[in-house]
């Protein structure tokens, strides 16, 4: 197999993605817990893994710095890129939602805090609601508590963060889970190896190819 470069973020998705690779027969035995390495090669020397910031994964793939990327659908919805989205890996499942204090929210002019400003703006614009979107990079649940925003648009998995902060889901926007994305030129040039890797991953997941 010619070498394929795969980009993903460290953290919650990487752990599950590494398990998917193992199930596909792709092993990274050199990986050590708490390693700070940013580049890893699998035991066969055919798959090179690069660890990048989550929001940058689609950029690495679109630009061809990586042939393949593993990234949440939430990130792709926020910042669509010119890549092929080929497999729903069914890991890191969560929902993009509107959340806030229980009860109706203002329906003409709304202040929204979010890590997903594009998703938030589009969702409310389609409902005819004008929004002032405040972009935050984390702890978004704080915004309604301190009166900085009427509602938030964020991802929810267990609902624990919302609950512990007295907030509830007001509306669901979209489901998210990690996707395997592919650079368009890579797919044209390395079709067989990419299809082989995707086939192995799907087989490991128990999905018919
Ligand atoms: N609570 C969650 N449950 C399930 N999946 C989640 C959850 N939070 C995030 N994700 C998924 O994992 C992806 C990466 O999120 P994560 O919180 O690990 O990184 P980040 O906050 O974007 O980046 P960083 O930790 O580097 O600041 C998200 O884009 C989303 O698809
Ligand atoms: O429904 P839950 O299971 O509670 O998960 C949802 C939380 O997880 C994510 O935050 P993350 O842990 O990435 O922290 P952040 O606030 O720094 O983005 C997300 O932004 C929510 O805050």
UniProtKB/TrEMBL annotation:
Pfam families: HisG. One of its GO terms (molecular function) is ATP phosphoribosyltransferase activity. It is an enzyme of class 2 (transferase). It comes from the Bacteria. Pathway: Amino-acid biosynthesis; L-histidine biosynthesis; L-histidine from 5-phospho-alpha-D-ribose 1-diphosphate: step 1/9. InterPro entries: ATP_PRibTrfase_cat (IPR013820), ATP_PRibTrfase_CS (IPR018198), ATP_PRibTrfase_HisG (IPR001348), ATP_PRibTrfase_HisG_short (IPR024893). Its EC number is 2.4.2.17. Heteromultimer composed of HisG and HisZ subunits. Belongs to the ATP phosphoribosyltransferase family. Short subfamily. Catalyzes the condensation of ATP and 5-phosphoribose 1-diphosphate to form N'-(5'-phosphoribosyl)-ATP (PR-ATP). Has a crucial role in the pathway because the rate of histidine biosynthesis seems to be controlled primarily by regulation of HisG enzymatic activity. This is ATP phosphoribosyltransferase. It comes from Sporosarcina saromensis. The lineage of its organism: Bacteria, Bacillati, Bacillota, Bacilli, Bacillales. The gene is hisG.
């Amino acid at each position: 197999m010619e070498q394929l470069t795969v980009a993903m973020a460290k953290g919650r998705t990487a752990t599950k993605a590494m398990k998917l690779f193992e199930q596909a027969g792709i092993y990274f035995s050199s990986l050590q817990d708490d390693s700070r390495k940013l580049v890893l090669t699998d035991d066969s020397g055919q798959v090179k893994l690069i660890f990048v910031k989550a929001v940058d994964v689609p950029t690495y793939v679109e630009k061809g710095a990586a042939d393949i990327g593993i990234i949440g659908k939430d990130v792709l919805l926020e910042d669509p890129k010119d890549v092929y989205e080929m497999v729903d890996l069914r890991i890191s499942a969560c929902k993009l939602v509107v959340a806030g204090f229980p009860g109706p929210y203002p329906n003409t002019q709304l202040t929204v805090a979010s890590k997903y400003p594009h998703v938030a703006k589009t969702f409310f614009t389609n409902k005819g609601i004008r929004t002032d979107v405040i972009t935050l990079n984390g702890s978004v649940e704080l915004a309604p508590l301190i009166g900085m925003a009427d509602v938030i648009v964020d991802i929810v998995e267990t609902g624990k963060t919302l609950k512990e902060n007295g907030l509830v889901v007001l509306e669901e926007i979209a489901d998210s889970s990690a996707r395997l994305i592919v650079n368009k030129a890579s797919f044209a040039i390395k079709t067989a190896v990419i299809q082989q890797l995707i086939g192995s991953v799907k087989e490991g997941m128990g999905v018919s190819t």
